[in-house]
Amino acid sequence: MTGTFNLGWLPRAIILGLVAFVIFGPLANLAIWAFAEAWFFPNKLPSQWGFRFWEVVFRPTGRAMEALNVSIWIALLTVAVSLIVSVPAGLALARGRLPWRALIMLAFLLPQAFPSLPVYINVARIFYEFGLNGTVAGVVLVHTLHGLVFAVWITTAAFASVDKELEQAARNLGASGLRTFLTVTLPLAAPGIVASAIFVFLESLDEFTGSYFVGAPEIQTLPLTMFLASMGGNYQISSITALILLVPSIGFMLIVERFLKADVMAKIGN
Amino acid sequence: MNQSRSLSLLLVAPALVVVLALFVYPLAYSLISAFTDKAGAFTFDNFNKAFELYLTDTIFTVVIIGVSTALIALVSIAIGGYLTLGENPTAVAILAWLYRWPLFVPFIVAAQCMRTFLAKNGLMNNTFVSLGLMDVASTQSFLDWRGIIVTFVWKQAPFVTLMVAGAMASLDRSTIDAARNLGASRLRILVEIVVPQVQPTLMVGLILSFVTMMSVLSVPIMVSGGSPTMMTVDMAYRINAHGDYGVANALGFVSYLLTGAAAYIYLRQSVRDRSRA
Q: In what helix (H) or strand (E) does residue A268 lie, and over which residues does it extend?
């Protein structure tokens, strides 16, 4: 039996190896470029490895560090704005007696059903009239729209998964509506809200198209810097910048299941 | 917490205002701009010019996104199917761990990865040459329409797989086990029992991917520099080089129409799900 078992593993191992190559090959190529100091055709690998370009990127006065700062600020502001509007909306959609609820939910689906690029072009044109083009506020607003759909849906699901009987118990013990919300509902829904905040943060950090039309050239976010370095043929700088963008994304992938519990996931879209 | 209707509306109002001001209004603006000339009179000129200049690119876009969507469907069914019906727990666990990685890789990073990986001297060709599967002279660059498709499938297939595998996992196992006991092959079970039941989820995933791919600017620019290119690149070019909002919005309108059919199915699907819930 052991003989056939080993033979049975061979095709499986080959296919899994191929899948691994397809998934990690492009990422590996990015990592190689990040540490390549000299790499010329037709060498299969760089002839010289090192951290020289990391110094260029991480130099405090460098463009990339400045862009990282700008990107993080924009992402934090985007999280703040989208939480301010999505938490009340999520609460109302999950618990309130909302007239035209289906229609309102539909409105939050719409931005997902249309290609965003032609809309961003016109947002940029409208922002231009208000002097919002090329400002942090303008980019934050575009990113908020981009993240809002997910924020509203996840927070709605988070509030919907809170056990109503716990709230009822607090009310029966004499707590006011506001107190019940602050001490019972909000803490119980917090993991879902945190998940939506992280999600909005990452979406903002990674967003390219909206920043390209509304922010550039005055506001240089990290993805814009990466794009320009890549188009300028500077693969080391763009690969290192891309790795910086990857760290929070991969980190989120590894912890997301801790925040987005199955009971919340099951309520998304309800 | 039973709130009154007006309080609920008040709570939801700010989020609605954001969607109306930053999405619905610009959308309406783009529609009007597509059908008017510079003086504000109704015209089809923008569309005539758009088709004259960019008909090839429009067809190119439809073909690329159509092929990508079909491949994403196949990959997600294959991976989801193996995760559901696979009999070796170790192989299932390895695959489940593997397939998710591109999910959180931003499009622009995926584009940068592929820009190097698929190049003539990229890691893909180099690996094939090193393994003796190919000689250096016959290597070619995939940085054209094929590269765009590879990037789209690489990035979006894990997303659809995640949805499809979730739906497959929550299926009633008894019909699958019954078919298995009656001697049906796993491929037949996948095609005849599993896929029809997860079809609504698969469709929603594919449509979301379709709309996403219609809006990506970085991948066509970075992966394939040449002509023909995708409509998103043309729209950016009309704006940046000519300030020509009319033609850009006419192209935008065409891309709405292309996704409109897809979106119709998607919205009808979710509304039906909602009324059932």
A: none
